[in-house]
Amino acid sequence: MSEVNANLVYVYDQWEIDLGRRELRSRGIPVPLGGRAFEVVTVLVQSASELVTKDDLMERVWPGAVVGEGTIHVHISAVRKALGPDRGLLKTASGRGYRLLGSWTPLQREGTAPVYSPRTSKAPPANNFPPLITRLVGRAAAAQFVRDLVSAYRVVTLTGPGGIGKTSLAIKAVRYLLPDFEDGGWLVELASLSDPGLVPSTVASTVGLKLAGEMSAESVARAVGGRHLLLVLDNCEHVIDTVANLAETFTRLCPRTTIVATSREVLRIDGESVYRVPPLEVPAVGQAAPDYIMQYSAVELFVARTKALNAGFTPTAEELASIAAICRRLDGMPLAIEFAAARAAVLSVQGVAAGLRDRFALLTHGRRTALPRHRTLRAALDWSYELLPETERGLLRRLSIFAGGFTVDAAAAVMMDTGFEASAVLDGIANLVAKSWVGLDKSGAGARWTLLETIRVYAFEKIVESSESDDAQRRHAAFFRDLFAPKAQGARSFSSDEDVARHVGEIDNVRAAIDWSFSPGGDLAIGTDLTAAYAPVWRHLSLVNECRERCERALLNLEPHRTSNRRLQMELQIALGDAILVTMGPPEQAETHLTRALETAGVLNDLPAQAQALATLVAIHASRGEFSRAQIAAERIEQVAHRIDDPTYQCLAYQQMAYALFPSGRPREAQQYLERVLRFPVAAGVRGDAVYYNQHDRAVSRAMLARALWIQGFADQALKETRLSLEEMQDTDHPIQLCRILYQGICRIATMTGDFATADREIARLIETATRLNAHNWETAGHFLKGKLLVERGEFAQGLPVLRDAFETSDRTGWRLSYAEFKGALALGLAGTGRLDEALVAADDAMAADREGADGHGWYAPELLRIKGEVLLRQAADQSNLAAENFFAEAAQMARDQCALFWELRIALSVARLRVSQGRHHEARASLAPVYDRFTEGFATADLRAARALLEELPP
Q1: Separation of alpha carbons 185 and 258, rounded Å
Q2: Which residues, including other chains, have CB under 8 Å from residue 104's CB and lie 6 or more apart?
């Protein structure tokens, strides 16, 4: 900028841009604006409303530097903020550049103005910044952002809880900017000050000012005057009011001084830009790949600091998983991670992971050169805690009860006996947020706050030491009991998917409340009510093991003979029966709970509860191979549904009828019921009182429909429905429903149509999902399907042990999952390895199970008869051939009776191959061609390809 230009003042309306004093003024009053941001204003005003491109702006404001889009945006934002109500003067041409609107008149300043001249000396400006001995891990992006803020604003505050790394980040960021400040950069350490009145003299002493007389913010600021300084005021929280006054005075009297403050509480002055220093990044739960874990800055810091103290440290994959868990539990807080790394260098990673239950006793060895309050994790928090007034300490202690965040209503509930009004609670939370004890939870739509886990553990220790703990925990548990279990008779606590999502967010609070309720000194009644009320959420989240354990404990503590407990007992029994089914607990116990719940629902005339209990009984009977009993229960649901004025239950009844009919060998009827289900116009998230039907249930119905279509010979339609069923589960998190869909649909259809690659992939997905959930019934079902797939592929030796292990689990637990189907696969596998006698025994077992479960013949009976015929043919005896033909004939008639065209094709193939082996080619064609000709689709599937190939070989 030339000297002539330096004497110019641009004027428009109430605004002045003084190039000599480097001031933006509104009605003669300076508006704080950082050095680079003022240069942006200068370039724009000298362009006389013309568009200044981004490239031109970068070249003129940051000559020779590489500047990103983010840096420009920060400075443009700072200018707009300074313009306040007139921010519209700065216009953006999207993707092109910027222009400053208005008729700005250049006026020549009278007298000699302070002239800005760029620094020409290559020597570094004077400073007292301490050297960064170790690399600051994971803060590159944050440091760049802070640099941009410091060059755009006059006052920048880095805030956050103790140990988050505010000071280290500030020093790293401003070191890069030192060349821009010809009079130097100065770190003013305020932590040791006990008297706020000493702040001005400490600043003056650090900068090297020698002042006589009374020391004040104004006298120090006037002494600094036009010096081009960068001041870092470190650890301001205990003298915050004095620092705020000093910073405000400097922005008014020292136009070329920039202040960076580090504090657990913001200054709250005009022109301040606040940067809340975030924790380091931590790996997500469930991600165990070493390369994935090492990408995260928290893990990188832990490993780097451990290596610094133990040069031979190279973490194994198992240790990396433990390090990831440690970093998560320490909230990514750098100070706590450094303490943990120091202990790991001595105790081992596993020792630290185990010791974190008492983190404040474990994390006690910081750097010897650190400030006293940074030498232990507890000391770091004690410093800030002692600065709080007692009212805020009391609120913080009570808030530590919340294990999963809180709303203002929840906070008010636990503060009820302290004399706090709801408005006072909200003010107290706001103060704790400002002082970095509490954070705003941005993951949801409503107003909600949370404490970092380390802070929560610290504050919880404080409440346990006091006499407030029991009362606060009781109020906490009662609040969530009342939230989820309304007192109104028959009232339900949620009726939409949005409600469930909100209740899901309280799961950690519910767990803490229930754990306290069932602990010594707790309240069993609250715990029992809350368990019953929250059971639908555990089921919604597929947390079946947790649901089972908590419902069992609640029932053990319930007095069942009290009339007032009947409904509560019924709800717990329904939830427990379903959980036992999924976890493969004792089937008799599950049936007993559901039968008793059904009786109670009848006494209470609670039709929705009857429907829910019966639906689970259908699944239990089907999972035990008791298809006739499943059909009886499904018919009862249909009767109940007719009495409920809610079409949701009719839809549930249709689905359950199909679930019972298909295994009984009635695929066409099952198809009709399922098509009614899919015609049902479900509004998203509509719930009935005890059950609800939504998109995930529709996906299950599609998977079941696919099986009904496939068995009738409509393979292409079946594959379409399986794809749709999986598409409807996209972007959802309902893994138990996904297991049902995979099992009912694609895993079976792909296997039987010969798409072995898809079958292998989806079966593996089923097993992995079920194993992760501890959903043992679906895990076992997945192993059955895997064994069957291996047999279908001809890998008999590999398939047999998989099937045998699954049968061992099934027999041990009493759950006979599709027993006949998988015994048939076992028979084929045994025959494939030449163990024909064992194969015949397995085939006979399968047919006996089929007759027993279906009171006749189930859906797999035609295939079982065919399998037995195939085994007999391998015995190479005339009587065996005759017996095999009889089995084939019986199987064909049964398949026709069931409208099972797919089985008819397989049977016709077996007959045709037998006739070819006998040299009776015309009879082979006569048995196969009529069945093949009835197909209208699915010609790319394995069995139809085999039939076509055989027919092409046979004479016409």
Answers
A1: 9
A2: 10, 11, 12, 17, 45, 48, 49
C-alpha 391/C-alpha 347 separation (Å) is 40
pLDDT tens digits, one per residue of 689-702: 334 444 567 899 99
Contacts of 218 (CB under 8 A, 6+ apart): 249, 253
Cα–Cα distance, 767 to 774 (Å, whole number): 10
Q: Are strands 185-189 and 449-450 parallel, antiparallel or unpaired?
A: unpaired
Residue written as token pair 């980040």: 169
For residue 628, the model assigns a pLDDT of: 87
Structure tokens given for 410: 């929840």
Nearest Cα neighbor of 401 from 472, 471, 350 is 472
* pLDDT score of 110: 67
- In degrees and rounded to multiples of 5, residue 122 shows phi and psi of -85, -10
Tokens read off for 44:
């724009």
Average pLDDT over the chain, rounded to an integer: 88
Which range, 129-138, 342-351, 840-849, has the best average confidence (pLDDT)? 840-849
C-alpha to C-alpha distance for 420 and 167, rounded to whole angstroms: 36
pTM across the whole model: 0.80
Q: Which residues in 113-251 belong to E strands, given as ranges?
A: 155-159, 185-189, 229-234
| Inter-residue contact 179 to 119 (CB < 8 Å) | yes
CA distance 420 to 476: 16
Nearest to 902 by CA among 747, 801, 763, 754: 754
Residue partners of 257: CB distance under 8 A and separation at least 6: 154, 224, 227, 228, 229, 230, 231, 250
Helical spans, DSSP H, in 415-488: 422-434, 453-465, 469-484
Q: Which tokens hold the place of 939?
A: 């010609």
Q: Is residue 939 within 8 Å of residue 714, measured between CB atoms?
A: no
Tokens representing 185 are 């950069």
Cβ atoms within 10 A of the Cβ of 57, count?
Answer: 21
Query: What are 186's strand-pairing partners?
Result: 231
